[in-house]
Amino acid sequence: MTLSDLYATIEARKSANPNSSWTAKLLTQGPEKCAEKFGEEAIEAIIEATKGDKTRLTSEAADVLYHLLVMLAASGVHLNDVLAELARRQGTSGIEEKANR
Ligand SMILES: N=c1c2ncn([C@@H]3O[C@H](COP(=O)(O)OP(=O)(O)OP(=O)(O)O)[C@@H](O)[C@H]3O)c2ncn1[C@@H]1O[C@H](COP(=O)(O)O)[C@@H](O)[C@H]1O
């Protein structure tokens, strides 16, 4: 499963029944709710990272990635645009990138 596969599934859930799909249910609640869920999952991942529990962090990181993609889809931002931005930054040092912002 790639992030692109997961993003495609999430996009397809825009027209799915909210009673049979968690993703569809979340998407019907709008971009603010999706952003809120992403924030909650990010905090849970931070907690596991600071505790040093690799198994729990792995699980929470999966939740973060999934909810990031849901938030992007809800906000009308395509994963390919994010990947293109990452590709643009490739070969540029982080320090240089920061100076250009
Ligand atoms: N990767 C995920 C994924 N990760 C987490 N979740 C769901 O995200 C929810 C996380 O919510 P919480 O942890 O906050 O738990 P909760 O108690 O249910 O939520 P609250 O009521 O407390 O807010 C759970 O219901 C999880 O099942 C996911 N749901 C779906 N996917 C992927 O999306 C695909 C499509 O899913 P459906 O749309 O459900 O068919 C699936 O096949 C998976 O590949």
Automatic annotation (TrEMBL):
Pfam families xrefs: PRA-PH
Upper taxonomic lineage: Bacteria, Pseudomonadati, Pseudomonadota, Alphaproteobacteria, Rhodobacterales
Swiss-Prot/TrEMBL keywords: Amino-acid biosynthesis, ATP-binding, Cytoplasm, Histidine biosynthesis, Hydrolase, Nucleotide-binding
Chain coiled-coil ranges: none
Protein name: Phosphoribosyl-ATP pyrophosphatase
Record's GO cellular component terms: cytoplasm
Similarity-based family: Belongs to the PRA-PH family.
Enzyme class: hydrolase
Cross-referenced PANTHER family: HISTIDINE BIOSYNTHESIS BIFUNCTIONAL PROTEIN, HISTIDINE BIOSYNTHESIS BIFUNCTIONAL PROTEIN HIS7
Enzyme Commission identifier(s): 3.6.1.31
Gene name for this UniProt entry: hisE
